[in-house]
Amino acid sequence: MKSLISFRKLRLPMLAALFTGIIVLTVGAQEFLTSQCRVDGGPARSMSLIASNRFSLYQEGEFVANLSAANLSVGPHYYEVRMQDSKGVWSAWEGQWFRVIGETHLVAAEWFVDADPGYGLGNSIALPVDGAWDEPEEEFVVSGIEVTNLDVGRHQLVIRARDSNGDWGISSQTTFYVGPAVTLAAAVWTTNIMDFGDPSLTAPATNQMRAADGAFDQDSEDLIASVNTLALATNYCLGRSLYVRCQDSLGRWSTRHGLWFDADAQTWRFDPAAGWGTNWASLSVAPEAVSSISPGDWSLVVTSNNSVVLGWNDCRGASGYEVYFRASPTNAFSLVAAGITNSALAVFNLPPSGTGKWLVRSLGDPGCAMDGPMWHFGFTKPQSNDSDGDGLPDNWERRFFPSLNAFNGMTDRDGDGFRDWQEWVAGTSPTNRWDYLKTPALRLGPINPFLGMPSLVLDWQSANGRRYNLYYATKLEHPATTWTLFDQITGTGGVLSSTNDWPDPTGFYLLEIEIPEGE
Amino acid sequence: MKVKLETALCLLSLVLSTKTPADTVYVDQRFGPGGNGTKAAPYDKIQTAINDANSVTIIVYPGTYSESLNVTKTLTLLSYDGPHTTKIEAAAGGDTVTVQPGIDVWIQGFNISTGRYGVLCQTSGSLHLRNNIFCGNSSHGVYVARTTLTTLPRVWIHNCLFVANGGSGIYLLHVDGWHYYDHYTYPSVEVYNSILIANTRYGIESSTTGYDSGPVTLDHNDSINNALGAYSAAFGSGNPISIGAHSISVGPDFVGGSANACNQDFRLLPTSLCKDAGHAGIGFLDPDGTRNDIGAFGGPGAATFYTNPNDGPIIRSVTIDQGMVPRGSTFTIRAKGATR
User: Fold this and answer.
1) Region of A296 on the Ramachandran plot (φ > 0 left; ψ -120 to 50 alpha; else beta)
2) Looking at the complex, does the CB of residue A454 fall below 8 Å from at least one CB of chain B?
């Protein structure tokens, strides 16, 4: 039995030897199951078997696939083919390059400065101006070029683009200059715009401005010039235009743009962002010296015959003066005297009581279109218990010092910026530098239930017995602002409050203090 | 004058029409005698195809062709299925292939065996040998001889296998110069990416130990287990001819084992040190795009019989109908493959 089995095992090869050709064709050759192709490593797709031939040693198959080039970009591509036999074994991918032709368009661009980093290694330009890489010509914008690390000198900005064939185009380049940091180097002012007619002209040395911090070393400086108004023209009392321009460290003069006058700081400031254009500001030059009789001066105290003598320094160039008076902010100014040419005026028949406001207006040159500046001040009526005639009651003076000679209206014994007559009016201490009339504080008050908006509340420290008149105006028309009496409150020694719940409480507020009769 | 011009045009047309448009001739021994060299009726002998006056490219289908070839004209001799299945076996004593001087010949994809020399090339002309196996010839696998000082044969040997030949794998014969400074003058030979193994003498042998002129360039070859050595005395470190910085001497690890029999499978195992060890560069890549494999089954000449390590189907050709495809059009990919 065992030998029989061995015999049968040997029979098959023997039979195969007899029919070698047939056996090889049907058993030896592996039939194709499939063939696949792909482009650029994309998804594989099947190919169609169009011919098959059997040979003694192998079987051959021919495959074909029709592919669309609609979605292929112009340029080189790589196609590959692989095949699988009936054993399920795949061949390796084998392929070749081919090229899709057509009109090319730009697909990328890059830029670099000076040294070429190699194609494709520059700074990429994400998109052209129109937002799409789809045309043979595109417009690019290069921004954000960092020059911090570039040496001073000339540099090349190079731009190049790549088309849909994958080819880089010829580089385009332009030269730019990196200079040292530009700072302001000088500034000048003038009242004559014609001085700046020629940017190359340098203003006289006397018109030089200086940097507020002492050195021109920044690209933005606060500029200061001390001007003696006596050096100005004879009609300096009129409003004038002051022109300023500045020069940078490269020697370039600006036009007048970029300069503006900070009224609060009383300085010119330069705004580089505004550039090198034209700018100017009006300048009103006041009478160069006010009267020796300042507001609150003792000599402004109305005399016993209800008269006062006003004096002021003559304003050069002024053709005359007008004097106005109003007893209350709610009144318009009334002309008291006009056309006077001297600098002193005795005014009689003043109101018997209360404070008032005086306005002295200088008149400009007849040829000028506008009047000169104004000067206003307050006055008080004479005190019955003022034995030294300084406008301060004797008992108030003695409350702080044993001698009546320690005070007069012009002194400021505690150095808090308020003269002693102002301390008396405000009810504050002339010997305590922390006690003076403080500007009312603003805060938001309760919600107005009808408007749904918060009200506006003004708080200020009061003096006992003083009467506070709070006035309101929507705008300032200096000096002739007409005020509306908004509130009247008698002081308690504590904090007083006044609430404005109008729909629009914004505006200007004036706090006036009245001294009760007999104090 | 008008009549004369028309006559001249007719004569020109006649001349052009008698020119054979295709010079490719086919050989397939399975068809037997009587063929005319066309694909439908191929010759059954290679020499018949060589003798065909129109043959420029000769494509030889698988089989064992027992004949000694005498190549007498410029031509390209291509095997269709590679050296594994296409053999030229000479009668004992004769040379398998003799290339006559002064012609330009390509021989690619054959197993050339049993002759005295596998290929004999001498005196002058150009010879390109690619993806051939020279096995079991009684003397040298390839014999290149410079016979004059005024002419020289130029031979390029890429991706070939020289195994078990009775002489050396490659033998270079010099000619003595007329003058003292020109004694050893060699042919021009370039050998890349080839395996020389188990030959009775050397892998590569020169006729003298000296060398004076004649460009001999070797590199990326694997010469191992040759009886007298990998190279004869003129080659290698300290000798006048370099074997190349990338040449190696390792066992190639054939699929068919280490018997080095002429009928064995000489493809490389995936772990062979000869894989991807051939000459770098796009002109030497394997058909799958990887670096050249040393041996007869690597390099671009193996395109029609290249198999990947998993022994899957062979892709003989991959073509596209248009190399330049208009955008938006439809293009056609064609491929031909084979399974064994």
Assistant:
1) left
2) no
CATH fold of A298-379 reads: Immunoglobulin-like (2.60.40)
The pLDDT of A186-193, averaged and rounded, is 72
CATH 2.60.40.10 domain extents, chain A: 298-379
CATH topology of domain A12-100: Immunoglobulin-like (2.60.40)
Better-scored residue on pLDDT, A233 or A450: A450
What pLDDT score was predicted for residue A519?
Answer: 56
Let me know if residue B30 belongs to a domain.
no
Pick the CATH number of A441-514 from 1.10.357, 2.60.40, 3.90.550, 3.10.450: 2.60.40
- The candidate with the shortest Cα–Cα distance to B295, out of B340, B255, B263, B261, is B255
How many interface pairs between A and B have CB atoms less than 8 angstroms apart? 150
Most distant CA atoms of chain A, gap in Å: 165
Residues 342-371 in A contacting B (C-alpha not used; CB under 8 Å)? none
What values do phi and psi take at A250, rounded to 5? -90, 0
Instruction: Quickly tell me which residue has 């650029």 as its tokens.
Output: A40
The fold of the A106-178 domain, in CATH, is: Immunoglobulin-like (2.60.40)
> Using CB atoms, which residue from A60, A70, A84 is nearest to B338?
A60
* Interface test with chain A among B333, B334, B336, B340, by most A beta carbons within 10 Å: B333
For B143, residues 6+ apart whose C-beta sits below 8 A from its C-beta are B95, B117, B119, B120, B121, B122, B171, B173
SS3 A275: coil
Choose among A61, A66, A92: nearest Cβ to B288: A92
Q: Average pLDDT of chain A?
A: 72
**What is the residue range of B209's domain?**
62-305
Give the count of domains, chain B. Answer: 1
In this prediction, the answer to ipTM > 0.85 reads: no
Dist. CA B42–CA B50, nearest whole Å = 13
CB contact under 8 A, B334 and A64: yes
Below-50 pLDDT ranges, chain B: 1-21
C-alpha A110/C-alpha A121 separation (Å) is 8
Return d(Cα A230, Cα A236) in angstroms, integer: 8
CA–CA distances in Å: residue B278 to residues A93, B195, B283, B297: 20, 11, 11, 12
Write the single-letter amino acid at A28: G
CA angle A282, A284, A289 (to 5 degrees): 160
A101 neighbourhood in chain B, CB within 8 Å: 324-327
For residue B306, the chain A residues in CB contact (below 8 A) are 94
Option in A92, A100, A103 nearest B325 (CB): A100
Q: Which of B263, B293, B315, B322 to mutate to test the interface with A (most CBs of A within 10 A)?
A: B315
Whole-angstrom distance, CA of residue A487 vs CA of residue A467: 10
Contact B134/B155 with Cβ under 8 angstroms?
Answer: no
Digit-coded pLDDT (tens) for A342-400:
666 776 666 544 556 666 666 654 433 344 444 545 555 556 677 777 767 888 888 88
Within 13 Å, how many C-alpha atoms sit on residue B255's CB side?
A: 18
In the sheet with B126-130, reading across from the earlier edge strand, the strands are B24-27, B57-60, B75-79, B104-108, B126-130, B154-158, B188-192, B216-219
**Ramachandran region, residue A391 (left: φ > 0; alpha: ψ -120 to 50; beta: rest):** left
